Each structure stands twice: as C-alpha cells, then as structure tokens.
Amino acid sequence: MSKLEAAPEHAEAFKALAHLSRLQVFFTLVRARREMAVGEIQDAVEIPGPTLSHHLDLLRRAGLVESRKEERFIYYSVRRDTVSTLCRLLTACC
C-alpha cells in the first residue's frame, strides 16, 4: 500500500464537513447507502431548498458526494472512495 499523505483536496473535504448542516446532509446520505433524490434529502434534514442546494454543491465540489440528473430529478450519493481515504488518513497514526 502506498504511503498516505494529506493533500489539499483532503483539507477541502474536511472543510466542507465542518458545518453542521452539511454534516447532517452527509450523514443522511451515508446512512441511506443509496442514491437519494434532493427532495428525499430535504425531507430528511428539513433544510430549505436553496440552502440545501448550496450545501450539496459544496459537498460535491469537495469530492464527498456525486450527483446525476435523471429527467427533472437530481440524485446524490456518497463517494465511498473519497470517504475511505479520509478515514484512513484520520486513523493512520492510531
């Protein structure tokens, strides 16, 4: 296994998670273990639509979630590869 080292994209991911609403959105997606439509996420976290869109965009740009559009719906899911790397980074010294 290659040596794990922190990189700028890791700092951006942790920065994106350093907000209570984004953390709640992220945990909702992690617990779902599947894609969720924006409306489902909104029902789960009770965040207004425009604010939720902002948070989802920040999580997407940080590489924590991915999205796809199908007709008029947008679905989000966790990028498990990125999350696994972040977990390994956090536990590497333990």
List keywords for this structure.
single chain; alpha+beta
Descriptive account of the structure:
- The chain has 94 residues and is of the alpha+beta class.
- It has five helices and three strands; from the N terminus they run ααβααββα.
- Strands 1-3-2 form a three-stranded antiparallel beta sheet.
- The radius of gyration is 14 Å and the shape is elongated.
- The mean pLDDT is 92.
> Average pLDDT across residues?
92
Task: Tell me about the largest β-sheet.
Answer: 3 strands, antiparallel
Strands side by side in the biggest sheet:
1-3-2
**Helical amount:** 55-70%
Number of helices: 5
Rg over CA atoms, rounded to whole Å, is: 14 Å
Instruction: Work out the number of β strands.
Output: 3
What is the topological layout?
Layout: H1 8-17, H2 20-32, E1 36-37, H3 38-45, H4 49-61, E2 65-70, E3 73-78, H5 80-91
Outline of the structure:
The protein has about 90 residues and is of the alpha+beta class.
